[in-house]
Specification:
257 residues; 15% strand; binds 2-phosphoglycolic acid; 8 strands; globular; single chain
Length: 257
């Protein structure tokens, strides 16, 4: 267990493969009508095509952090279709999402590439947002803590303790993600969040933020935030419209510690 936290409550969304530039503009304009409450660190991960556009549309003093949904570990070079950490940073990223289950399943992301990308991100002064989570079969077999624990250990294996402090982990059970996902209950996630906190503390001596993601919506947000080891929420569909994101942010007020 970590000591009582002074960290903000992190609440953010990845747009995944959604939004034209015009749609991105509309999202930002609507979001800017809502003052982000104190104690909440909001973040948005647009598609690469919209990252610089969103950065430029936000006021210079905006506290909303931006990030990329993926970036390569190599500094530059012949990696068709990829972007580098440096390019993501140049386009406005502060955060780099790494190892989302959709990338692990469809694009060959492994625990090893996750570790390489986490190291590359911190070497560029970026915050890795590392996604971990078990498939349903692993949960049903009682293997969740071992499976996710190993994912976290390997993801952090190339980082020094001080760098781990700058890293965010998102626990996203695969069975809870997306349209076919079954929302997790706080009882299901609490032991995993506590285990992640222990693994991170052991690896780094100081905990980073650990978020929960997977079918987060207005129905379950309050319940999820009762878990003491959940330092924020990583949201997909429910925040793809700015109005939905704003509703969630409102519900998170008071959940920050
Ligand atoms: P979802 O996506 O909220 O749409 O389930 C979550 C995620 O993949 O991070």
């Amino acid at each position: 267990m970590t000591s009582p936290k002074s960290r903000p409550l992190w609440v953010g969304t990845s747009w995944k493969m959604n939004k034209t530039l015009a749609e991105a503009d509309r999202f930002v304009d609507k979001l800017l009508t809502f003052p982000i409450p104190r104690g909440i660190q909001a973040f948005v991960l647009p598609a690469h095509t919209a990252l610089a556009r969103v950065r430029d549309r936000l006021p210079p003093d905006s506290h909303i952090l931006l990030g990329a949904q993926n970036a390569h570990w190599a500094r530059e070079g012949s990696w068709t279709g990829e972007i580098s950490m440096r390019m993501a940073k140049d386009a406005g990223a502060t955060l780099i999402e790494i190892g989302h289950s959709e990338r692990r399943e469809h694009f060959g992301e492994t625990d090893r590439t996750v570790a390489l990308k986490a190291a590359a991100a911190v070497s560029h002064g970026l915050i890795p947002l590392i996604c971990v989570g078990e498939p349903l079969a692993v949960r049903d077999a009682g293997g969740t803590l071992d499976f996710v624990g190993v994912q976290v250990q390997i993801a952090l294996s190339e980082l020094a303790p001080a760098e781990i402090e700058q890293t965010i982990i998102a626990y996203e059970p695969i069975w809870a993600i997306g349209e076919d996902g079954v929302p997790a209950t706080v009882d299901q996630i609490a032991p995993v969040m506590a285990m992640i906190d222990d693994v991170v503390t052991t690896a780094g001596g100081s905990a980073c933020a650990v978020l929960y993601g997977g079918s987060v919506d207005t129905e379950n947000v309050a319940d999820l935030l009762t878990d003491p080891n959940t330092h924020g929420l990583f949201v997909g569909r429910a925040a793809w419209e700015a109005s939905g994101f704003i509703e969630l942010l409102k519900l998170c007020v008071g959940g920050s510690q």
